[in-house]
Design goal:
The protein has about 575 residues and is α/β, with parallel strands linked by helices. Helices cover about 25% and strands about 30% of the residues. It has a domain of about 160 residues: Sandwich (Immunoglobulin-like), CATH 2.60.40.1180. It contains 14 helices and 30 strands.
Length: about 575
Amino acid sequence: MIASLALVAGAAQSAEAREPIRIRVETNALHKIDHRLFGQFLERPSWGETGPEIAAGTNGNLSADVVEMLRAMRIPIVRFPGGTDIDFIDWTDMVSNVPGRAPERPMTTGHQGHKIANRFGYDEYLRLAADLKWDSILVVNFLDALAKKKPLAEAAQHAAGLVAYANAPVGAKLPDGMPDWPTVRTKNGHPAPYGVKIFQIGNEWWCGRFPQEVKKALGSDKVDVLLPWYRECLIAYVEAMRAVDPTIEFIADAQVGFPVEAQLYVDPEIKKRVRYLTHHFYSPFGSVSDAKLEGKPVPRESMKSSDWWLAWATMPGFFDDAGNCQGFGSGLQTYGYEIASTEWNWNGWSGKEAVSLGDGLDWRHAAAIGCAGFLNGLLRHADVIHIANQSMLVGHSWGIAAIRVDPTGKMPAHYNAQGAATTFYNLHHGDRLLAIQATHVPVVAQPYQINWPYARPKVALLDVVATRSDKAVFVHAINRAFDADQEAELDLTALSPPDGKSVQHLLEGTPEDQVAVRKGWMTERSQPVAVTGGKLRVTFPRRSVSIVEIPVILKPEVEATKPL
C-alpha cells in the first residue's frame, strides 16, 4: 500500500526534490504463499519451436549441462507437455512399447501440421522430475471428447490411461478394456509408479481451433448447447481418471466462453471434482515496437529510450491506482476455486530489433523487470493463486524460454531474462506475505499502448512487497526507473531484527558481450547492508530487482496472533 504518492511526468524526481522513500514492514501476515507459485512450464510444442527436444540426445535424456542448469533453478513444480498441441495429439506417441504398435515411438503431428519426434517423452520427463524433485502437472487431451472425435467414454478412458501409466502399481486392477499400462511402464524401465498428483484437463478451451471444432461438432455455440456438454465431458474425465487413482487433483480452464464458465463452475458437481481453475496471461503479444498514444500511432523515433524501457518494463499484469502491479488484477475470476496459472510470461516476439535502448541495454532486461512486477502481483494475490507456471522452460527459438539452447552450438546453453527473474524470486522468498506501509514512492505515467497492454496512468517506480519465513524477512523491490537509483529506509522495528549485517540480493542486466561467459542475460550478485535499531538504508540501482534478506527470529506471540 502506498500512502503518499507524487505523480511526476517523465523521469523520476531527483532525490533532492522529494521526501525520502520509507518502507515500514508490519508484523501481521496477510496470507500464506505457496512455493509452487514459482513453477515452470516445460512445453513440448511442434511449430517454430520443439522445446526440450532440442536438448535431448539419442537416448531421449536432456544434455548434462541443461540438467545442471535446471537443477540450479530449484523449480518446485513443472507442467508438461502442452500447451496448444496437447488437444491434437495422442499421449501414447510419447511412450515406447505401446500394445498393438511397433515398440518405437512414432512421429507426432502437431496442431498446425508440423511433425515432431518423441525422443523426450513421458518417461524421460518423469525420471527427470524425480531426480530434480519437481511436483508435476500433466495435461490430457480434452478436445477428443468435446469435439466428438472419439465417443466420450473412449476419450475419457484414454486420458485415464495416462494416469495408469504414471501412477498405477504393477498388478493394479484397471478398468475393463484398458491396456496394462503399468506393465508397459515396467518394460520401459520404471516398475514403480511415478506418483503424479495433478492433472490438467485440456488447454485453452477458448483459443484457436478449439472452440471452432467444438462448435462444428455440436452444431451450435449457444450456452444451452455448450453448457451441458462441457459439464458431461468434464465429469466423465474426472470419474474415469479417478477410477484409476482416486487421490489425484484436477485443473480446468477458467476461460471457456462467457457466460458458459460462470454457469459451469458454480455447478456443485463440478466444484466437488475440480480443485483448481487456470488463467493464462501473456503480455505483450506480437510486435513490441509499434506504439500508440491516445489511440494514434506514434513514430518510433519520437520515443526516447526511457519511454520504450518503461513501456516494456510494465508488462505483463494490471496496475492498481497506486501504480503497483496486481498480476491478473480485479478481473480474476475464481468462482470459489484455487487458481493455478499454468501459463504466463513476458511474451513479445517481434520488432525489438527496430528499437535501440542505448547504454548496452537490451529488451530482455526490461522483460526481466516486467516479470518481477508480475511476480509481485502474484504474491499480493497468493491467497487465491497457489500455483503458477512460467512459460516456457527449455527451447531454442521462442524468446521466452528460461533456458535457451543454441542448436548451432556457437553459444552455450544460457538463462534467458524472464526465467532468471522467476528463479531469483524462487531462491529468495518467505512463505507468508507481510503488510507494508510505503510513503513518498515516486510515480510516473506510462502513456503508450504497445499491442495488448494499455497505457498506465500511474506506475510506481519502486514496487515493493515483503514476505517472511521463520528465520528472515524478504523485501522484494523492483526499481523500474530508467536512469535513477532509488534510496529507501526500510523500517522493521516492529519485527525486532538484530543489529548487524543483512544481505541485498540484486538481479541486474548482463552486458551483451558477457552473456556467453556468464551463461545468462541477467546477473545475480549479493552485498551486505547494515541493520541498526531495526532500520536499514538501501539503495536500489536503476533497472534492477532487489530482494533484501533480513534475519528475524519469529516470535511465538506474533505467530499466534497473525491473521491468516
